[in-house]
Write a structure and sequence with these properties.
It is a single chain. This protein is α+β, with helices and mostly antiparallel strands. Among the domains are: 150 residues, Beta Barrel (Cathepsin D, subunit A, domain 1), CATH 2.40.70.10; 64 residues, ATP-grasp fold, A domain (Dna Ligase, domain 1, 2-Layer Sandwich), CATH 3.30.1490; 96 residues, D-amino Acid Aminotransferase, Chain A, domain 1, CATH 3.30.470. It contains eleven helices and 27 strands. It has a nine-stranded mixed β-sheet with strand order 2-3-10-4-9-8-7-6-5. The protein has a five-stranded antiparallel β-sheet with strand order 25-24-23-26-27, sandwiched between helices. A four-stranded parallel β-sheet has the order 13-12-17-18, with helices on both faces. β2 and β3 form a beta hairpin. α3 packs across α11. The chain is globular. The relative contact order is 0.11.
């Protein structure tokens, strides 16, 4: 039999699972194949292990849902893209591509962070396919019209809440995931661009307007995801939604507090939480004493308005520290000077807190040559087991800031766990990719818990 020549991505179908079309990433470097699956639930049927799961077969589409059942043939430890091993259910089903069908093994995993809803590994291709990486969709494409015919009956109609995502970039991973998670749960989701909203201040009838003069008066909840550069305006909009009686997942006042690094640290330490020794000053004449106050070099110098590792400098020597501090002060910017926790080895812990619980935690490791544990700067992330004390710190910090959703950063030191900072708009890509947890879905659940008391789903 002639082998099928395929490219780097191809459409295929899984007829036994009722999936007429799914685009697969063809990867001969991967041994096993994987299918995107959520809400995975094992059960027993006729004495054998089975599993129920949901598949969203189209990329960036949480409305289209296929409900599947299959017998489990194995449970296997598989390394994900972060290099972390995770246990997955393995099923066997029929694969159809280019008018040929054969049985393949598939592991079930949440692939939201991967883009492609299916990965086709070499085990499934052996003896059947030849891969030409320069090709793409060589066995045929699927038009939007064809996909609509296939999946129209599987689209979830909005029956729940109307939720607005107030943010700046609709293409950001976190924002895409939140929209998908809400749609998966039957809610009507809409992206609201911060810069295109404007408000009517009226004591009796406050209004929120959107581009083209549309009045935003029918939202059940708002999820603010405000980037630091638009904190003032974004919080003004959030505050106005609150005045209109709309539930906001994080309030404007809590976001403002978290964005002021100095104020937030003062609130946190006044509540008994420990932080690295930190100094704050405004006079260049005090530079030497400021350095001495935090234990001397090496030390960290931070811009108060910095984010995602920007505006953070490690100074190795006293002379370097003096130069950096005086340079920042000559620019008339506010800075913090903080002791450097050498024993942390360029690692920190991000605890993701939702509604008073740590729902996931990762350890972030700095890239070679870097001291900041930041995945946006080439760092890596993996699942970490947190201690009870670390979880208590994260939960208490979020509570002090009155944040329903927060990313709390902790560093392990010889003095015990120390709180670094708290983020009111934590990113989802790193933590979902490392933990394989539906964090966006848990954020939607937190909204449902509050709002559905007043407005039950029809």
């Amino acid at each position: 039999m002639n082998k099928i020549v395929v490219g780097s991505e191809e459409w295929c179908s899984l007829p036994q699972l009722g999936i007429p079309a799914v685009k697969a990433r063809v990867d001969s470097g991967a041994k096993t194949s994987a299918l995107h699956a959520t809400n995975i639930a094992p059960f027993t049927k006729d004495g054998s292990p089975w599993v129920r799961f949901e598949v969203h077969p189209l990329e960036h589409d949480g409305k289209t849902t296929i409900y599947c059942e299959s017998q489990v043939i194995d449970k296997r430890s598989v390394k994900n893209t972060s290099g972390t091993s995770e246990t997955r259910f393995v099923i066997k089903t029929v694969l159809s591509i280019a008018d040929r069908t054969w049985e393949v093994e598939l592991t079930l995993a949440n692939r939201d962070s991967m883009g492609f809803r299916m990965l086709l590994g070499r085990q499934a291709m052996a003896g059947k396919m030849l891969v030409d990486p320069e090709l793409k969709l060589s066995v045929g494409d699927r038009s939007p019209e064809i996909l609509q015919q296939f999946y129209n009956v599987h689209v979830k109609k909005p029956t729940g809440l109307k939720i607005g995502l107030l943010a700046s970039n609709p293409n950001l991973y976190s924002n895409i995931r939140i929209i998908e998670a809400g749609e998966e749960r039957g809610h009507q989701m809409e992206f609201l661009n911060i810069t295109q909203c404007y408000i009517k201040l009226d004591g009796e009838a406050p209004e929120m307007h959107y581009r083209g003069g549309r009045v935003l008066d029918d939202y059940d909840a708002i999820i603010p995801r405000i980037r630091p550069s638009v904190t003032f305006y974004g919080c003004a909009l959030t505050r106005h939604f609150e005045a209109m009686g709309v539930f906001c997942l994080n309030t404007a006042s809590s976001i403002v507090k978290s964005r002021d690094k100095l104020f937030s640290l003062q609130l946190l330490i006044n509540s008994g939480l420990k932080i690295p020794t930190t100094g704050f000053a405004n006079s260049p004449l005090d530079t030497n004493d400021l350095i001495k106050m935090v234990g001397g070099a090496p030390l960290i110098v931070k811009l108060l308005e910095g984010t995602q590792g920007k505006g953070v400098v490690l100074t190795e020597t006293k002379k370097a520290a003096e130069s950096v501090i005086n340079a920042f002060k000559s620019l008339h910017v506010n800075i913090l000077v903080q002791e450097f926790i050498k024993e942390a080895g360029g690692k920190d812990i991000r605890c993701f807190v939702i509604d008073g619980k740590v729902v996931a935690a990762i350890q972030r490791t700095a890239a070679p040559g870097e001291f900041r544990a930041n995945i946006h700067m080439g760092g890596t992330a993996k699942i970490v087991k947190t201690t009870l004390e670390e979880r208590k710190i994260a939960i208490k910090a979020a509570k002090i800031m009155n944040l329903k959703v927060a990313g709390v950063d902790i560093i392990r030191s010889n003095k015990g766990p120390l709180l670094l900072e708290i983020n009111s708009s934590p990113g989802l890509e790193g933590i979902e990719g490392a933990t394989n947890k539906d964090i966006a879905g848990l954020m939607i659940n937190a909204i449902e818990k509050v709002v559905l008391k007043q407005k039950p789903i029809k």
